[in-house]
Design goal:
This protein is α/β, with parallel strands linked by helices and 312 residues long. 37% of the residues lie in helices and 17% in strands. The strands form two sheets. A seven-stranded mixed sheet has the order 3-2-1-4-7-6-8, with helices on both faces. The chain has a three-stranded mixed sheet with strand order 5-10-9. Helix 1 packs across helix 10 and helix 11 runs antiparallel to helix 12. This is Glycosyl transferase family 8.
């Protein structure tokens, strides 16, 4: 078995800073491992790519052509999902031929420990190893929604992929076909399509490999890092409220900023979430500010919540 662990990230120019931060977290928690990073980029400037190449680690950069992603235009109505999310479908076809096992990670992830144990997971007879997406009940509902027989529904932000099996199963073509045939019907787009295509062709592994931040309650979100038994290998900051927005304060943001400190974006001010905030976001931030005793801030967020509700 090859000793190198291949880790793949995909991004466009809007998300490259977040990719760099996630990559830094993998690198600094795997200094004893032979990690080869593969960064697939779409619409990323040469200046940004040079910054990625200069980052610590063995990093290969690949450019995706417009033609490869044209077919995905207009698929998403979710504000935090853009066309670059579909690059992961192309990766097994585009990677160097000698690579047969690799880890795909979304850019809104942070790594907190070694990936070495992945190599002991047997994926010889499946397309990939995956982690369930949500609670058993919500996963069952998602499976029913898209017509699956298996009640287990996985999150596609982490995939440990058997490349030869992926190619043999024609995952890219089948996923594209489903996205085209069921356009407007799939709530979670290529994640839904991948669940359909890969039903009975995956092995489910422990949640520590892709723990969804949104599954934690508020206390767990703030305190998980202080309890070793609660710290996952990969934390996935799902949903619209990302740690890179200045409004989303707390432990998640502190950890994000720690790893961002190892990138050239360390001194770049955090962006505001205000332009993307929904009524529910204002309500969450109002409640958080109130618990901290920040009454004026809570009032400002609650006012935003009311305005969104009135204009909805």
């Amino acid at each position: 078995m090859e000793s190198t662990i291949h880790v793949v990230f995909c991004s466009d120019g809007n998300y490259i800073e977040y990719l760099a931060t996630s990559l830094a977290s993998v690198y600094h928690n795997n200094l004893e491992n032979d990690i080869h990073f593969h960064v697939f980029s779409y619409d990323v400037s040469e200046d940004q790519l040079a910054k990625i190449r200069a980052q610590a680690g063995n990093i290969s950069v690949y450019k995706i052509d417009d033609a490869d992603l044209e077919k995905y235009d207009g698929q998403s109505s979710l504000a935090h999902i853009n066309k670059s999310t579909y690059i992961r479908l192309l990766v097994p076809r585009l990677l160097p031929e000698h690579i047969n096992r690799f880890v795909y990670l979304d850019v809104d992830t942070l790594c907190f420990s070694s990936l070495a144990a992945l190599q002991a997971i047997n994926i010889d007879h499946v397309v990939c190893a995956v982690v369930t997406d949500n609670s058993a009940e919500i996963n069952r509902k998602n499976s029913l929604r898209i017509g699956m027989n298996d009640s287990r529904y996985f999150n596609a932000g982490f995939l440990y992929i058997n490349r030869s099996a992926w190619l043999a199963h024609e995952v890219e073509r089948k996923t594209q076909d489903i996205l085209r045939e069921r356009k407007g019907q799939l709530k979670y787009l290529d994640q839904d399509a991948l669940n359909i295509v890969l039903e009975n062709h995956v092995v489910f592994i422990d949640k520590k490999w892709n723990l969804l931040y949104t599954l934690l309650n508020e206390e767990q979100q703030q305190n998980f890092i202080y309890h070793p038994e609660s710290v996952p290998v990969i934390m996935h900051f799902t949903g619209g409220r990302k740690p890179w927005y200045r409004e989303h304060q707390g432990t998640g943001q502190h950890l994000y900023l720690f790893y961002r400190n190892f990138t050239v974006w360390r001194d770049v001010p955090l962006r505001s979430f205000s332009g993307r905030m929904r009524a529910t976001d204002y309500r969450v931030y109002a409640r958080t500010a109130l618990k901290k005793g920040h009454f004026l801030e809570a009032l400002r967020y609650y006012s935003g919540y009311l305005k969104k509700k009135v204009t909805k």
